[in-house]
Structures are given as C-alpha cells and as structure tokens.
Amino acid sequence: MSGELAVSPLAPADFPVLPAVDGVELSTHAAGIRYRGRTDLMLAVLAEGTTVAGTFTSSLCPSAPVEWCRAILSSGRARALVVNSGNANAFTGRTGDEAARLTAETMAGALGLDATEIYLASTGVIGENLPQDVLARELPVVPSNLAPSDPATWRAAADAIRTTDTFAKGAAATAAFDGVGATVVGIAKGSGMIAPDMATMLAFVFTDAAITPEALQQLTTASVRRSFNRITVDSDTSTSDTTLVFATGALDNDLISGPGDPGFAELGAALDAVTLELAHQIVRDGEGATKFVTIEVTGAEHDEAASTIALAIANSPLVKTALAASDANWGRVVMAVGKAGQRADRDRLSIWIGDEQCAAAGVVADGYSEERATAHLLGDEVQLRVDVGIGDGTATVWTCDLTHGYININAGYRS
Amino acid sequence: MSGELAVSPLAPADFPVLPAVDGVELSTHAAGIRYRGRTDLMLAVLAEGTTVAGTFTSSLCPSAPVEWCRAILSSGRARALVVNSGNANAFTGRTGDEAARLTAETMAGALGLDATEIYLASTGVIGENLPQDVLARELPVVPSNLAPSDPATWRAAADAIRTTDTFAKGAAATAAFDGVGATVVGIAKGSGMIAPDMATMLAFVFTDAAITPEALQQLTTASVRRSFNRITVDSDTSTSDTTLVFATGALDNDLISGPGDPGFAELGAALDAVTLELAHQIVRDGEGATKFVTIEVTGAEHDEAASTIALAIANSPLVKTALAASDANWGRVVMAVGKAGQRADRDRLSIWIGDEQCAAAGVVADGYSEERATAHLLGDEVQLRVDVGIGDGTATVWTCDLTHGYININAGYRS
Lengths: 415, 415
Known about the structure:
2 copies of one chain form a homodimer. By secondary structure, chain A is of the alpha+beta class. The first copy, chain A, is 30% helix and 25% strand. Chain A has a 7-stranded mixed sheet with strand order 10-17-12-16-13-14-15, with helices on both faces. Chain A has a 5-stranded mixed sheet with strand order 5-4-2-1-6, sandwiched between helices. In chain A, α1 packs across α2 (93-111). The interface between A and B is large, with 69 and 70 residues.
C-alpha cells in the first residue's frame, strides 16, 4: 500500500545504517495476510535471558495483541516478537483474542519456546479477523529466514511493519559506561496509515545491555513520556499503540538494576536518543505533513501543565492550518493556550515564531515584524515558543501542519 | 468579508421571519471598524426592568468584552447590548479593557443609561486594538436608527454581527402559559470565520417574559448545556464565545422566579428550541461543512460520560474525514470511543450508521451491509449512534465533516 503515497517531503534522506545488536536475530516474510507483493510478518528472536519493558495505548478499546502483551509483560522476560502488518486484530472480540493466542502458540511451537515469552503487535485494518488459516500456514515458515541483526535485516524488519508509512523508520545510539559500549537500535511505524487503521504507532527498541525488567521499565516509561507522548499528528489515539524495549544482556555488563548502577543513566540517554529520533520520524511521516513543527512552552505552572498547553497548541486544527499556510497567525496560539484548561494569564503571555517575538505580556510585541515571522514559517522546520509567565514548567512537543494532503489521505482512501 | 465565501450547502433555505419582542429596539450601523460597505455595529436597547443571564467561553484568555460582561452580570439587569464585528478586542491587554469601557460609557452617554447596564460583544480579528477614535465618533450615531424589533430589524441585526458566516442565523419560539404567550427570539453568529478569528460563537436571545435573573440564569445554563455545548466544528474554543439572554418583562406575566412558577418550564422549552436551532445553524455553517452530523451515545456510565464520548467522536479528525468521504469507516468510531477516557468495554460496544448496525457486542454485526451504511452517509444529514452497553448515560451532539473546504478557509485566507 505504501507505494501509493508519495514519500513525505520531510523524510530523512536515507534509512540509517543500524548496527547489529547481539542477541537479536531477525526474519521477515510475505504471508499475504492482506498485502500482496510485500513482506507483512516480522520476527525477532531474542537471546535467553532477554528482559522487556513496554508501554501501550491508553485506549479503553485496545487491540487483542495489546491485551496479550499487557498480560505477559509482568514476567519481564521475552524470547521473541512477532509483528504483522495489514490487519490490526482490533475490535475483533474473542475471535481476535484467539488469533493472538494462536499466533503466539504457533510461533512458540516453531521456535521451541513458551507462548508467554512471545510478544505480539498487529497494525492495519481494524474490525476484520486475522485469517487464522493463513497464520497457521505461514507463521512456522518465518523462522527459516532468521539471521543476525545487521543493517540489512534491520531495514527489512522496518519495512515489514509499515502500513502506509511513506518511509521506513529506524534509529540507533550507543551508551558507554564501565568500559563497555551498549548498542540501542529501534524501528518504528506510524502516522502513514492504512484506512481504516488509526495511525497506529509501533516502536520496538533492542539493546544488548543487561538490565533488570524493573530498571528497563523505569527507563522506558520516562523515555516514552519525553518522546512518543510528546508528538501528535491529529490528536487521535490508536487502539494498538505499542512500545516494547528488549534488552538481551549479550553485552555481559554488570546487571543494571536501578538508578544507582553504572550504565543506568547512560543507557537511558541512549534510549532517549533512539525514541526521540523515532518519534520525530513519525511526525515527519505525518499524513499530509509539509512542516515539522517544534512547540516549546515555558513558564507554565508545572511541567505537566506545560505539556497540556503545548499539546493543545499542537492539536489545534486552527493552529495547524495556519502553519500549513505559513500564516503568522499567533492569535490562534492564544486561543489554544486559553482552551488548554491550565493556569494562564492573558496579560503575561508571550509568543515567538522562530526568533521573532509576536506577543509580549499579553499584547503585540514592540517591533513585531509579521514579515520576519512569515519568513520563518515558510521553511519546513518551524519553531513556536510560548512563555506563560507564571511558573517554571516547561515542555516541548512536536507536530506537523494540517494540509489538504491529510484530507486526501483520510477522506479519499480506503481499500 | 462574508461575500467572499459561498453560502454553505447546509444553510437553511431562508432567514426566518422573526417576530417582534416587546421591549426590544434594534439599530445597526456601518462604522468601518474593519469592514467596508457593510454594517458592523449592532445595538439592542432593552426596556427598563430587563433581566439578563449569560454564559461565556471557558477560555482562560478571554476577550475584553467577555471580561466586561462577566463583571457586570451579577446585577442581573441590562438596558442595552452593543456588538461589533471585524475586531474581537481579544489579546489586547489593558488597551482592550479601556476600549470595552469606552464603548459602554460612550453608548451609556448617548442613551442616558449607566455603563454597567450595557453588555458588550466583539468578534473578528484578534490582537489588534479596537480603534478608539472610530468608536468615539461612530457609537453616538447608532441610536438614531433605533426601531422596534420586527422581521426586518432582526434580520439587519443578524447580518451586522456576521464575520465570515456564510448565512445570517436566527430562530424564534413561543411559550404559552397562564393565558399569555411569551415570545423568544435569538440571533447568532459562528463557525464561518475571519482569520485570525477563532470561529467565535455569539448568541443573543430576547424574550418579553418577566423572569428573575436567577431563574433566567438557571434556564440559560441548562439550555446552553443542551445546545451550544453540544456542538463542535473543530474542537477549538474561542476567546470570545458569549451567550446572553435578555428578558424585558414587557409581557407583564406574573414574575417567574423559579421552577415552581407557571411559565418556568414553558419558557425553558421555548428557550431550548431557540438555542438548539441556533446551535444547529452554526454547525450548518461549519467551515467547509458538507454534512450535518448527529451523534447519539447511549448506554454510557452516566450522561456526562456519554457527552465526553460523543464529543470525542465528533472532534476526531479521522471520523470527520471519513464522514466527508461517505466512508463507512466505523473502526474510527471505535478508536474515538477508546480515546475518550470514559468507561467502555470493547466487547459491549455497538455502532450504527443511520439505521444500519455496523458493530454489535464488540464485533462486526451479523448481516452488516457496508453498502447500506454508505448509502446513508452519501446524504447530507448523517446519524451515528453508539451504544456503550454499560449504563444509562445518553447524550446527543452535532457536528459537521472535515473537508478540503476547512483547509481552504483556514489555511488559505487572511486579509
């Protein structure tokens, strides 16, 4: 499907060269679940002892694979990840739960593992049953292609999980501590979408570091809060959003078990770098996006308030359409601050577009030049900054503009 | 400005013939505040003894006229209403407060009234100062045109408060009780918009009934909750949203002072009819709207939960673009229910498009026909119904679809 959409103008020039992560083997397969002529199954097999952490959609109507992962995550252990594209296995009731279990059990049988060590994610059409006959036939074939993770297999994995993403998404970082170097690699899909999918975001991150599940969850939760939870394309929340972080332990470092241990901070920083880069790539593939927009809020009552205000700006259709038009329409930013429901005072509000201050203390800034603000907006990397003027809370979020392309993709397009 | 936009395809055939309301005199004037060649000031002078109730934007950055009205509303008394279009007097700081005070004081001088009995509303561009010299010169002229309310003066008033509304909005109803007949007439503007305005909604309702301010506020609050607070075009909240209800008492009925009094329920019903009709007209003038959409939620935990779920559906860009495409994409409705944050259970959810049941108990409904659902969606009056299946809470909201027209208006257009 992805071939039908032009590559986003905001896409990175190339897919990155992602390094091997010891303890991770990858395979992809064209199972024909929905798509023809492309891969739609991705398998990662993880070394014995791999720990896992995860965060999932806040939707109260989550997909069957999300419920499966939630149920098995308490063990903190993982041996494999199976992802299919083309069908989200969402809103499929008990049949969907059965399909998830069948997937895990079939793959467990093929790999000689326990089903409860196998994590699942599905993305694609919702409300249609995953074809169990296809799964039963095709899943056992997938392990035959297993190969160590390397630039080529990472790229193949990133491609297999795409739906209508217009480019494959990947990122890597390293963490040096205690004389060792840990590798962190992530792949993701999102924002490009196949209707009636819901811009599902999936992100899978792998490291060779040895870390307890509890410490990994702590790093993951913090990292997701600063990355995937700080991006928005259209304010909608998928039934299937999933972030899973796997640590194979192949690095053989001293086990990281908490903030006091060497490597905790370094690994967290590397994880942050990977999740933030993946989050930015998802925004860059926002449906119809022509501008990558950074919104920084300072001076709010506290950080959560700053985040709520920043997201209110980022989700405002009026702000997003103004950005699409390179229209220095800062009145719409005032509106969004006002509707955010967080403490604000009209007479303390300051607003910048790029380096140009539009508003100061609640009125138009002295010397404000709409021409300079517009010049900044004409670029495809846009910065908005709001100072609320009442406290120390700060937050940064990333979004894209709202264009005819979004309408074309979402109103014109369902196979 | 309104002439630049084609009339909404959902507009009523004609502006209604609005009856006189005893105790209300009207005048309009072309002051040239921003627009040329059209009226932009509207004055209503109200009989001595007129009571007033109001509701205002929840924005924490409200316009100066909103703050003015809030400050004087505690008296419960009103003698005049002054509305200007073309400039919202929002985000104008102390200068804006001064302009509001100047408006009230100038009109008070011209009419021989107290400024604190004069209600104000402004709609149009924000962040620009209301030109005080123009106000000082033009406001005193407005009363010279005063005439009793009648179909022609109502129409003129409804026109003067338009910004980019593509049609003038008005509604009337009567309440019979205790051998008398009360008249309720309302005019409104909204949804059509002049950038960088924010689709400000203004509604002014007038009745000849005699009712205490407290009882009138009670009816107004309830009525707004069921009408203006149940519509959404794009989820954005104006700095200036204002509803004011004036009761002149010219009917000379026994004063209505609470729910136990004759006329309270009847007047409330007439007020509801007027506010609901005005609310629907605002949706019908939604920017780029091609479909009028009714969303009914039943079976929620309670009515507030039903309302939150219904608004989540109504505000979802993915739902709204599917509606624009007449795409029976009920998976997006599931998504919106899931993200609403209210109690829901995937396996109890049922969804209808028109009379066609798409989903039952969390899976595709037996015998669901996408053809029949699509046939319903191809019309310009669309019904969605969701039964959450867990309680007795119900709510109905109204919205429109999200089309290229919305992008054209909001991304392409600022004078």
